[in-house]
Each structure stands twice: as structure tokens, then as C-alpha cells.
Amino acid sequence: MASAKTVDKRPLSPHLQIYKPMLTTLMSITHRITGAALYVGTLLVAWWLFAAATGPEYFDFVSGIANSKFGRFVIFLYTWALLHHMLGGIRHFIWDTGRGFELPTVELLARATIIGSLTLTFVVWAIAYAVRGAF
Amino acid sequence: MADMRTPLNKVRGLGSAKEGADHFWRQRMTALANVPLTIFFVVTLISLWGKDYAAVTSYLGSPVVGIVMLALVVSAMVHMRLGMQTIIEDYVHSEGIKVLCLMLNTFFVILVGLSCVYAIVKLSLGA
After folding, report:
1. Dihedral sign of CA atoms A106, A110, A115, A117 in order
2. Does domain A23-132 have CATH number 1.20.1300.10?
3. C-beta atoms of A6 and B80 within 8 A
4. Interface touch A128/B45, C-beta < 8 Å
5. Using one digit for the tens of pLDDT, what is the confidence trace for A84-117?
6. Set of chain A residues whose Cβ sits within 8 Å of the Cβ of B120
């Protein structure tokens, strides 16, 4: 490791608060935040699978929590985080091919990610309610 | 006496860390696998929503669903471990706490992953 003294005396480059917030910046940090949220969210998936493997009574208990208003709200956010992170990842795949680095394209991809994730989430939930028949 | 050598100068000539593009490549491979697996998972959730215990367990216990769910769990766990590793390395600067966080990251992922695998296997064998 470098000794702290030699590192600290060097000038620091401007950090986040210096720059004007932009949609691309927001999409970058949102990708990381949704990723971290999904990391924690796997606990819910594990809990659900565990409940199904445990028995009917415990499964009904967990199902009841998942179907409550709060449960649905959390699962709704989870769905959005999942789909947003997925679309963000696809955006990164496009960049991996060396394409899409022109500023208008970058801006377009950022818009497509947020609009796409919100639209997909609402579509998924509309289908879910329609299939269940419980509007 | 102050150490005037730069960090770069200290590591020059020591060779690579023997990792190269491994992190990047595994992250991208699991990301690619996660796209169809995630779509499958969302469709599964939709179709199982509101169904009773018998319906859910028989669906999750069917061979194809079981295998795909296992693939999803393994791919997702590897992917999220790599992602959290990057977040920790970006924000935790104290060496000791960083190593501790990286260890906890691995333990968390293995524990959650094995719980999911245990449940899926149990359902597949008829819970």
C-alpha cells in the first residue's frame, strides 16, 4: 500500500457534486442501486422458495404477507428493479460491441432504459392481474 | 523517512495479479444468462400468483422448472457476488474492513444460494 502522506498531498480530481446531474449519470447510479437492491431482494426469493419447500401452513403464512398491500408494493419495486437492471445490462452489451457511444445515442439509450423499465413493469403487473382475474 | 515511490513504481515488474479479464468475463457471461432466466422467473411469478400450495409446489417441482430455477440461482448468485464485490471495492477504503466485507459478501451469497438450491431440490424430490 502507498503511504497515506504521499497520496494525500496530490490534488484531487473534481468529484460528483461538481458536475451537473444528467440523465446518463442518473441511469448509471440507478443501475448500481437496483443491483444492490436485487442483492438484498434475493432473500425474499429464498424465503418464498423455502416456504414452498417447508409445508402448506408456512407457505400460506408467507403468501399472506406477499399478497398484503405492503407485500405487493415491495414485489412491484422488485419487479421494476429487476427489469430496469436487465435493460441497463442490455445497454451495456450494446456498448460492449463498441457501438452506441455517440452522445445522442447514449442519451437515447438512457431514455429507452427508464421508459422501457417502467412500461415493462406496468405491462407485467397488468398481465399478472388479468391472469389472476382480480381487478 | 517519507516513501517517495509511487504505488505504480512499487508494483512494476511484479507481474500481473493473475486475474486479468476473469471478473469482467464472468460478470458478462452470467449477465447474458440472466436475461432469459429473469424473463422466465418473472413469467413464473405471474403464473403462480394467487395459486395455492399444491399448485405452486407441483409447478416448482416439475423437472424443467426445477433445472431452470437452479440455473437461475447459480447464475444470479455468481453475478451478484461480482457486482457487490465491485461496490465494496469502490466505497470501502479501509483495507481490513474491505477484506471483511468481501468475505461477508461471499458467505451471504453462498448461504442464500444454498438455501434456494435446497428448497428447489426438496420440491423436485416431492416436498
Report:
1. positive
2. yes
3. no
4. yes
5. 999 999 999 999 999 999 999 999 999 999 999 9
6. 49, 53
